[in-house]
Structure formats: structure tokens, C-alpha cells
Amino acid sequence: MTAAPVLSFDLGGTRMRAALVAGDGSVLAMAEGATPARDGVGAVLDGLCTLAAACLAQGPAPRAAGLCAPGPLDAARGVMLAPPTLQGWRNVPASALLGERLGLPVLLENDANAAALGEQLFGAGQGAQSLVFITVSTGIGGGVIVDGHILRGRGGLAGEIGHMKIAEHSPECACGARGCFEALASGSALGRRAAEQRRGAPEGAAPPTGRDVIEAARGGDRLALRLVAGHARWLGRGFANLLHLYAPDMLVMGGGLANGFDLLAPRIRAEIAQSAMPDYRDTPLLRAALGDAAGLVGMAHIVRQAAPDSGRERRHG
């Protein structure tokens, strides 16, 4: 009997994706689009269902689905509690709402947890028993693997590394606090610094994103290069804290800003060499190997582990 794929979703603050994922971690079909993060729950669910339809048109029908999303969330109850990057998402029963629309059981998991597991099983972390996955994108999230298992903590709330304090002052974080790792080192923070320092932008022009700054730096733009260097130091400071907290076999960096890993990594490592105690400094820092598919692949594995019969094939219709 041919195993059915799992329908996986990765809901981010800027982009959202859906995919059909086979049991070996291969992606059979994928669709993505912009997240209507300011438009409320209904608009996001509509978008996820549109992406699902595009995937289902390309492959066998799944028996189960999984949604990985930004925290904080309660995975056991399938409830998204109050993700800072999505407006109007407070105590939303995401699993039930999406499952009702799809006609499938839907499992919920923190997006960084799912990506960490995907990288450990099929990506850069293969062979590691412990790792910390850091997703640096609109915000900053973390997934921690300890002795081969996701570290969930009380109520599944562990790993919110974006909101550890690494400075006394910063612009206000999306969570409402100041000094957060996310407020200082996310892709949004890099874009904000670029907007503050650039003058003469055409009226009505979209503000720069972190990816825009990376691309400009790659092209030799002096301001962008300076911004990237400063940003890498903030990342390195946060990464050093993670080494002290978890002593992992490796750090794996993913998310949208990982497209600038080659530019960021040397200064991140230099900051770790200054900020971390000697026994932690040789921990490998790797770029995520699965790219945008890490969360989708990891989420599919979590669904299969929770519901082994989800792998049985079902025909469309």
C-alpha cells in the first residue's frame, strides 16, 4: 500500500506555505503566498486553504494535516495563544478551525520546534542528539532538541528565545517589552535600521526588509555592509547565550535572514568568541539545509508520529 503524504502548513508573519510531504521527508508539492498578518484569523485561514488546494491538485490526498506556527501556543489543545507577528490571534483554536475547513484532523506545533526536528532528521543536524535551531525572519524563534527530543517545557512554552533580554534598551518589541533578542536581531530589526539611516526614499516606497539589506550588502553597498556587520554582532550575542543555556552539539540558523548566512556568520562567530566561555566557542554554527521546507518537513514527521495511520493512502473525492 502506498503511503499517503501529510499536508503540512508553515504559517509565518510574512510568508505562509503548504506542502504535501512524503514519509521520507521529500516534498511532493508546495505552494506559498504572503501572510495577511494584519487582516485577522479568517483571512489567514482563507489563504491557507487556497495554498492547500494548490497542493492537493498536484498529488495524492492526505489523511491528516499539521500546522506549524509562531508561538506562544498550546500544541496539546491546538490553540494559538498570542503570536506577536499575527494581529487578532489571541486564544484561537487554530487546529479545530483549519480542520473544519479541510475536513482533516490538524495537529498544531511551534514552527521553530517543527523546523528543528526537520533539520535534525533530514537536514543540517543529521546525527546530532542535541541542537538549537534559530529561525531569524520577521521575528526570532527557537526550537531546542535535547537527547533526540523536542524540549517543550511547561505547557509547551519552551524555546521562546526571541524574547530573552540581551540589552537594556531597544525599540519596543512586538511582545510589548524592550531589549528582546527579536527586537534587536530579527530581519524586521535589520530592515528598520536601514529605513532609519537611508534618506531620500521615494514617497510611498515600501520600507526595506532584512532580505533587501542582505541583497544590497551582497552587491557591495557600504551602508548595507555596515548594517549587516552590526546586526551579526547582535545575533552572536544571542547565540552565545543559547550556547550557555543548552550546550548543544550545534546551532542551526534558518529563516529568511539565513539567505545572508555567508555574510553574517564570520561576525557571528567572532562575537561568540568574545561573549561565550571558552568551552562553548567551538560549537558548530551551520546554515539550515532544508531552507523554507524545514518546518513543513518536521511538521509532517510530528503528524506521522502522533497518528501512524495518517500514512495510509486515501483517494481524492
TrEMBL record:
GO molecular function: kinase activity
Keywords in alphabetical order: Kinase, Transferase
Source superkingdom: Bacteria
SUPFAM superfamilies in UniProt: Actin-like ATPase domain
Pfam families from the UniProt entry: ROK
Gene3D superfamilies, per database record: 3.30.420.40
Region (Disordered): 193-212
PROSITE patterns: ROK (PS01125)
Family: Belongs to the ROK (NagC/XylR) family.
Protein name stated in the entry: Glucokinase
Organism of provenance: Salipiger marinus
Lineage: Bacteria, Pseudomonadati, Pseudomonadota, Alphaproteobacteria, Rhodobacterales
